[in-house]
Amino acid sequence: MKNNNELNVNGTVVRVIRHNGADYVCITDIAALRNPSEPKDVVKNWMRSRATISFLGLWEKLHNPNFKGVEFDPLLAMAGDNAFTMSPTRWIDELNAAGFVCKLGRGGGTFAHRDIAFEFASWVSAEFKLYLITEFERLKAKEQELIGWSAKRELAKINYRIHTDAIQQNLIPAAVTRSQMNIIYASEADVLNVALFGMTHQQWQAANPTLKGNQRDYATINQLICISNMENINAVMINENAPQKRNAFRREAAQRARRASARAQRSGRKEPRIPQSQRLKKLNEIAIQQMRILSEVERRKYLK
Predict the structure, then answer these.
(1) Can you tell me the mean pLDDT for 268-293?
(2) Taking the complete model, does pTM exceed 0.70, yes or no?
(3) Dihedrals φ, ψ of 114, to 5°?
(4) Residue 115 above 70 pLDDT?
(5) Burial class of residue 133 in the structure, from the number of CB atoms within 10 Å of its CB (0-12 exposed, 13-18 middle, 19+ buried)
(6) What is the rounded CA–CA span in Å between residue 136 and residue 23?
(7) What Å distances lie between residue 254 and 66, 143, 246, 249, CA to CA?
(8) Which of 127, 165, 173, 208 is the most buried if burial means most Cβ atoms within 10 Å?
(9) Within a 10 A sphere around the Cβ of 111, how many other Cβ atoms?
(10) What are the residues facing 113 on neighbouring strands?
(11) Mean pLDDT across the stretch 169-177?
(12) Is 127 exposed, middle or buried (0-12, 13-18, 19+ CB in 10 A)?
């Protein structure tokens, strides 16, 4: 909420400020309706009345624990006399009053708590008071709407953080197990699937019989970015000339590997020099790191 606002009251601009958590309306702007050149004199004339002093004193007693009630009584007794004068500045200085705020310099003026400002507006013009109350209520409704929007936005941020923390285990892949590393996968696509999603395409189909396509069709944008990066990294690792260390293959997996090796030799192509199990472990570590980074970047972007 802004600390300063302006009301357009039937063509007259009336300023409103926040002071100590309350709304204060510029009675100098209201007084200009009576005397545009010397609006402060209008305020002083209003404060000469005994009814006005009685009202202001009661307001201070109800809302200001630091109000000097003892010093107030003599002023109330003199109020209404021809020689009696009073101004907002004197009221504040002598009685430690809180109902007025006086600002000096450009853009200054006398601001009164809205209760007092409405009372003054009624003295100036009953019609203007009704317009003032209508515009003031419209301003408050608008501020409440903005506060509600801001509160909903902050709540959305909190809920998003809770949500992302709760599903983080699903977004960030788990480390591959030793048994997963010992399996020779029929395709490089399944190596990437296991590294990122923790299961092969066949395993995903068995776990999701009602879904069509494959797990990549249901991946998040972050997962798709990650797997695209992993495809490039895997291609580099396949062509690395690192020493090869063979693992003990399972029966069916060993047969597939030997057939693949024989085909590679007949075609004159070199076999990958980094074992698949090592590439799977490395790709899984890369997937975990990248998904953590991408998830944190997305969270920070949303929470700004």
Answers:
(1) 75
(2) no
(3) -55, -35
(4) yes
(5) middle
(6) 10
(7) 91, 72, 11, 5
(8) 173
(9) 25
(10) 24
(11) 62
(12) exposed
